[in-house]
Amino acid sequence: MKIIAFNGSPRKKWNTATLLEKVLEGAESQGAETEIVHLYDLNFKGCKSCFSCKTNGSKSYGKCAVKDDLTPILERIEDFDAIILGSPIYLGTVTGEMRLLIERLVFPYLTYTEPIQSLFPKKIHSAFIYTMNIAEEQIEEYGYTTLFNTNENYLRLIFGEAESLFSYDTYQFRDYSKVLATRFDEKRKAKRRKEVFPEDCKKAFEMGARFAGGNNE
After folding, report:
1. Rounded Cα–Cα distance for residues 19 and 195 (Å)
2. Where are the alpha helices (DSSP H) in the chain?
3. In degrees, to the nearest 5, what angle opens at C-alpha 148 toward C-alphas 156 and 138?
């Protein structure tokens, strides 16, 4: 069992990265091999609309033809038994780096047929982990539900199985006194970080253990 996680946050030791690490810890507890990719370490772009992945007879049919730092990772993606994407929410959506990955990861496997089909050669687990500054009761107001459903639907279409894990109202700064952020209650945020975030970490760990212990046949 091999599991790969993609960190779409520029931070390697904060909310999103921590949850991804917990997923991988859970998978490792069941004997899985794991890997994490920090997208902000890579020099890559999104889809270039070359349509090589859709061109009959192309050596890149069903594969992304763009060559950059993401290429060698995508060339190995079919070796994995689970894929985990993680991103904070910036301005109502995932980070730019995560969006670029989604274009390059999902689009080549998606067919331009009716009905749409997947060219990914097997059914595997996939999941999206989101961290965000707003509270759970605000997601409808901010329009996040559409984003979450769309991403999960694409993952399910391509990989066969998909789910999402949400960490709300996250603690953003190590020292709120240095940041002009008066709309937020630091004490309440700190309390949630102490009491609720560990539960989110537990859910992430359990997800990884479940993915590694499951049967993909």
Report:
1. 15
2. 15-28, 71-74, 96-106, 144-159, 186-195, 197-213
3. 160
